[in-house]
Amino acid sequence: MDAIGGFEREPLVAVGVSGGADSLALTLLLDRWTRRRGGAVRALTVDHGLRPESAAEADRVGAWLAARGIAHHVLRWEGAKPAAGIQEAARAARRRLLIEHCAGQGILHLALAHHRDDQAETVLMRFARGSGVDGLCGMAPVRPEGAVRLLRPLLAVPHARLVETCLAFAQPWIEDPSNASAAYARGRLRAAAGLLAAEGLSPERLADTAHRAARARRALEVGTAALLATASAFHPEGWATLDPAPLVSAPEELGLRALARTLMAVGGQVHAPKAAGLERLLADVAGGLTVARTLGGCVVAPRRGRLLVAREPDAAAERVPLPPGGTGIWDGRFTVRLHPEAPAGLVVARLGAEGWGQAAERWPELRRRDLPVPVREASPGLWDGGRLVLAPAIEAADRVGGAGRTAFRADALFTPPMPPGGPAFPVVSKGAGII
Questions:
Q1: Would the N or C end of the chain have less CB density within 10 A of its end CB?
Q2: Rg of the chain over CA atoms, in angstroms?
Q3: Where does ATP bind (predicted)?
């Protein structure tokens, strides 16, 4: 925890507790760590409702922790459960419920008990899927999730030590039978752990691989940010331009990453386009791109000696109802805030050609703005049925007066989920904390 850093004077830390040895050991250790600093730990158990005994197990965990003076809350996964991919869905629901609870309670730090053996399994599974450097980093020790930091302080600690920790605290735990089930990839890897270790694929060696890959990824991301600082220009309407010369002259991996980061930001995506598509696009740029291309939900086209990167209008198909005073995320790219005096029944949707036509007719000065066609057509608009009310991302309401002015305001801020220049992948060094 000291290596991770970034805590308030009296830290309040939430921890996800399943009832297994790993999460209970982390809870007990965090309880001691926070108390020494005048803080507290809050244990959170997600009851997925997938086994008849899960509710009773959650209550048992609560009783164990209450006896130690540790606050405990149960979060329940309500609603229908998917018929396929249940483990993945359960993990996603667990993380969502934990993060939502922390955000709602103003808790800045959420600790999870992933350990060295989990990290090794993650690396093996990603290697089997053909992952590159980014995937072989495994899990990050620190990861921002909105207003909450996700912490994994045990990534260097083997599972066996966490079992011994529970024994040292005289703390019983619950064994989840699904952890060893051959129906799931992780269960099959655990069954083959001895054979893999005999061939040199031990958890320790795989965790070392993840650490070295993380160092390489961090260096690449720092280099990518420096390249973008030289080659890119981002605009508040949600588009960017790239100077092709530094993009092409940089090492190929940096050029590919710079392209990917730009496409992710402009397209509102959290995952990069596939490597093959990026490689073809960079080759076209190196050869002198003369026609528009689409990739990652974006249009890439030559424009005045640079590359235009804009959201593909047809891909921005989301429609988000927004009540007066409400805030919503539209198309993964824009945070739209509607002021309380606005009427009810408005919907955020793309301008498109029709919306731009209405906006330009209503506010003629917009025609003088140097906005490429895909930028303005993929811009968010506030609609009342088929009538455009506002085009907040291109500031229509703030550029008119008199009869043309709308009686209320709305704001649309370009807030991509992945900032183009970072943050770089965090690496815990053995002597200097997070680097």
A1: C
A2: 25
A3: 18-23
| Residue 379 marked as a ligand binder | no
The mean per-residue pLDDT over the stretch 216-244 comes to 95
pLDDT at residue 406 in the model: 59
> Binding residue per annotation — 19?
yes
pLDDT of residue 181: 56
421 labelled as ligand-binding? no
User: Is there a single domain that holds both residue 164 and residue 54?
Assistant: yes
Domain limit, last residue, from 160, 178, 201: 201
Q: Which residue has the higher pLDDT, 421 or 108?
A: 108
Lay out the sheet containing 232-235: strands in order across: 232-235, 239-242, 306-311, 298-303, 293-295
CB 47 within 8 A of CB 74: yes
Residues 373 and 245 in one domain: no
Same domain, 290 and 189: no
* Residue 61 lies inside a defined structural domain of this protein: yes
Residue 435 pLDDT more than 50?
Answer: no
Residue % of the chain over a pLDDT of 70: 91
- Residue 232 marked in a binding site: no
Domain contains 218: no
Q: Which residues constitute the domain of residue 350?
A: 317-414
Helix (H) or strand (E) run with residue 10 in it: none
User: Mind listing the pLDDT tens digit for each residue in 60-97?
Assistant: 999 999 999 999 999 999 888 787 778 788 888 999 99
DSSP character at residue 269 = -
Tell whether residue 130 is among the known ligand binding residues: no
Task: Kindly provide the b/e burial profile for residues 135-166, where b requires at least 16 CB atoms within 10 angstroms of the residue's own CB.
Answer: bbbbbbbbbeeeebbbbbbbbbbbbeebeebb
Please tell me the distance from the alpha carbon of residue 365 to that of residue 352, in angstroms, as a whole number.
Answer: 18
Residue 213, annotated as binding a ligand: no
User: In which element (H, E) is residue 408 found?
Assistant: none
Q: Do both 303 and 330 map to the same domain?
A: no
* Model pTM score: 0.78
